[in-house]
């Protein structure tokens, strides 16, 4: 037996005994060929999504619909219980608590006479005017107190004491000063809207990140420009929360204003219905106040979400 590659071996036999060389594959080393496919671990559109899975927009719509349906559970349960205790079992008499149908009929009656829309519109107008005035003053004074230690020392204690005064305590004094016109009512509502905005703005500006303030000053911002460009945007979430609280306070102070010194509005409707023994109209006014308060709060909530996305 001869060993390949030694003296005396057959060249043909040697060639057959050697392993064949693999030809050089140019395509395997071509960078363009390697880059033509997705890299390992790269997500490919359409992969990993089970067939029949809804698109993100459809999922969001379904989520919103589910939240709306869930939020309606408690109001519908309250309405059903109300109907059961009044119209079905008679547990409450018509004078104590009228049935939902009776309240609806009272609303239709007032609407046909044009009184319901007048009461609603004048109340909404008073709330918006008082809310705007009180919020503007609260924003300005809250900024001063929040940014100045001297102003905080001078004003914080006095304003804190005035904040504890009940709404009805202001009514006699406002009637003496401003009489029975719209000014007294709007002023009382403005007082109610002022304190939540003032408190939240002052507290938020005190706790703005000092690094943000220093960065703004490094870019040459001072005074009002620093407030509007750096400090107020940083305090935006707290400011909007204060506005929502102020709006709720405005509706509370509206009732206090209209109960005593008014001839129109939902507060007047409450008071007048009590004297006339119209419990159905009393409940109607309460329901309208709840609906209007929630509607205006929802509007402010939309503004809040847009502001937070912007800042």
Automatic annotation (TrEMBL):
Belongs to the binding-protein-dependent transport system permease family. Its main location: membrane. It is a multi-pass membrane protein. Residues 116-300 form the ABC transmembrane type-1 domain. Residues 37-47 have a biased composition (Low complexity). It is found in: Cell membrane. It comes from Actinotalea fermentans. One of its GO terms (cellular component) is plasma membrane. Keywords: Cell membrane, Membrane, Transmembrane, Transmembrane helix, Transport. Residues 1-61 are annotated as: Disordered. The keyword Chloroplast does not apply. The chain crosses the membrane at residues 68-92, 127-148, 160-180, 186-205, 251-270, 282-303. InterPro entries: MetI-like, MetI-like_sf. One of its GO terms (biological process) is cellular response to sulfur starvation. This is ABC transmembrane type-1 domain-containing protein. It comes from the Bacteria.
């Amino acid at each position: 037996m001869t060993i390949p590659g030694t003296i005396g071996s057959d060249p043909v036999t040697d060639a057959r005994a050697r392993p064949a060389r693999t030809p050089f594959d140019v395509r395997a080393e071509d960078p363009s060929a390697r880059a033509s496919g997705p890299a390992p671990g790269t997500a490919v559109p359409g992969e990993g999504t089970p067939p029949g899975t809804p698109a993100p927009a459809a999922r969001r719509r379904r989520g919103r619909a589910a939240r709306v349906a869930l939020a309606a559970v408690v109001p519908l349960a309250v309405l059903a219980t109300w109907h059961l205790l009044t119209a079905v079992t008679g547990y409450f008499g018509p004078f104590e608590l009228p049935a939902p149908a009776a309240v609806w009929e009272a609303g239709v009656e007032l609407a046909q006479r044009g009184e319901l829309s007048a009461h609603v519109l004048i109340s909404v107008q008073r709330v918006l005017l008082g809310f705007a005035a009180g919020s503007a003053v609260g924003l300005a004074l809250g900024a001063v107190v929040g940014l100045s230690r001297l102003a905080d020392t001078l004003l914080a204690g006095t304003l804190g004491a005035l904040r504890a005064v009940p709404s009805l305590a202001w009514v006699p004094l406002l009637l003496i000063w401003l009489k029975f016109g719209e000014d007294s009512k709007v002023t009382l509502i403005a007082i109610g809207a002022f304190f939540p905005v003032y408190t939240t703005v002052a507290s938020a500006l005190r706790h703005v990140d000092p690094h943000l303030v220093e960065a703004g000053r490094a870019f040459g911002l001072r005074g009002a420009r620093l407030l509007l460009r750096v400090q107020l945007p940083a305090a935006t979430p707290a400011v909007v929360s204060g506005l929502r609280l102020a709006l709720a306070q405005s509706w509370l102070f509206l009732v206090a204003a209209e109960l005593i010194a008014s001839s129109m509005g939902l507060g007047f409707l409450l008071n007048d219905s009590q004297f006339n023994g119209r419990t159905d109209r009393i409940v109607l006014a309460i329901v309208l106040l709840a609906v209007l308060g929630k509607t205006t709060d929802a509007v402010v909530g939309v503004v809040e979400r847009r502001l937070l996305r912007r800042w």
